Amino acid sequence: MIAATTVCLLLVLLFAGVPVAFALIGSSLSAVLVYASDLLPALGLSVMSTVSNYILLAIPLFILAGEIAVRGKLLDPLVELAQALLTPVPGGTGVATVGVCMFFAGITGSTAAEAAAVGTFGLPMLQRAGYPKPFSTAVIACASTFGILIPPSLTMILFGSITQAPVGPLFLAGLVPGLVLGIALMIMVGAMAAARGYGVRRQLDVTLVRAALARSAWILAMPVVVVGGIYSGWVTPTEVAAVVVVYGLAVATLVYRSLSLRDLVVVCRNTARVSAMLYFVLVGASLFGFVMTAEGVPQRIVEWVQASQLGTLEFLVALNVVLLAMGCFLDGLSMLVIALPLIFPVAMQLGVNPLHLAVLMTVNIEIGVLTPPVGINLYVMSGISRLRVEQIVTAMLPFYVFLLVGLAVLTYFPALSTWLPGG
User: Which stretches of 87-205 are DSSP H helices?
Assistant: First the structure.
């Protein structure tokens, strides 16, 4: 009764437009207060256990690193380098834009932030190169989703917090799939641009490449610090987040001198706002997960799956279908915190590798942020490009096919997710 009431209240609040954090907290607390007030002490302990998790310190630090990169214009030298290197390639400017998105994903783990940052300078760059606005917008919208797959990833941090899985291997699990999808998207964008006659090819200017490489050398080191630090085991994800913040701040203030004291105040304010929102969501997820577990909902789902005799692959395919449907109506964070406490025990019972499950959920969230009517990246890109969402969706059709094929490949070949972290 408590679980059913919680879910019904949650759906009502979400569709009424209540923010997901307050919908989770309100529905869970209301059901417990009415039906099982004796659970309140245990409920408080569950929340304290969640928010005191050391790994959660990485969330505000990685958000801060992304804000410093955007506000300090750390991507500008990288854009110059990508353009200088890829101008001779058919569709080179489009390919360069995808490359910049992949690189930015190695600094911050937010798709919306990536879409806003890359869209601001990438869209004019593509238009100057002769790319139509709808196509350019679709390229950036699709490529910006790598922010939650290529480490660092806020989605992976939240997955680890909810499931108690170590975050370091989760980060590494997303690296190979992120690179595979990114390179495949580069090839696709280059082929489409060449076939449609978009862009202007120029000869390689070695002098320009050298100058751009020298200017961007400081920035190129940032993802190396993230991945190398975690892969080597020298630092934890939280520690590497702190290193990236200090490094980015030093480069922005001392090398490029692109970040003023006033900018730093804005950076800190934005970081505090986004971090507070995520922590409230985590509190709500903890309450929701506690209620579901106390009512035995995950166990009943496990029993139902076993009775249905679903194999591992069949379960994952069914999970993809459910998550894709949820992505049409819920944002990615809501999908994760609502679905994960329910499906994780089932997946473990069927022998699904947690690293594989994390990657599949992340890719589903990537698709969800591009799926109308709720897809946040569509609205971010609509605001930047001044195009209607319907126009962007139409231009996105080949990219939806691309992402669905990528999801199918990652579902069928779990080794792509588990090979690097050794899972």
Answer: 92-105, 111-128, 133-143, 154-163, 167-196
Encoding tokens for residue 96?
């360069």
Structure tokens at 98: 């995808």
Which of 123, 114, 125 lies closest to 86, judged by CA? 125
Tell me how far apart the alpha carbons of residues 193 and 199 are, in angstroms, rounded to a whole number: 7
- Residue 112, pLDDT score: 66
pLDDT at 292 over 60: yes
* Residue 106 structure tokens: 């190695």
Name the more confident of 406 and 219: 406
CA distance 154 to 140: 20
- Using DSSP's 3-state secondary structure scheme, residue 123 falls into helix
Q: Return the structure tokens found at 203.
A: 């000869």
pLDDT the model gives residue 109:
58
pTM (two decimals): 0.83
- Using CA atoms, how far residue 81 sits from 107, 206, 214, in Å, is 17, 11, 9
Per-residue pLDDT reduced to its tens digit, 101-127: 887 776 665 666 677 777 777 788 888
Please state, in angstroms and rounded to a whole number, the distance separating the CA atoms of residues 201 and 82.
14
Distances in Å between the Cα of 178 and the Cα atoms of 57, 86, 151, 226, 276 are: 24, 20, 9, 15, 28
pLDDT score for 289: 77
Crossing angle for the helix pair 376-385 and 389-412, nearest 10 degrees?
Answer: 140
DSSP state of 110: -
Give yes or no for a contact between 113 and 258, defined as CB atoms under 8 angstroms apart.
Answer: no
* 255 secondary structure, DSSP code: I
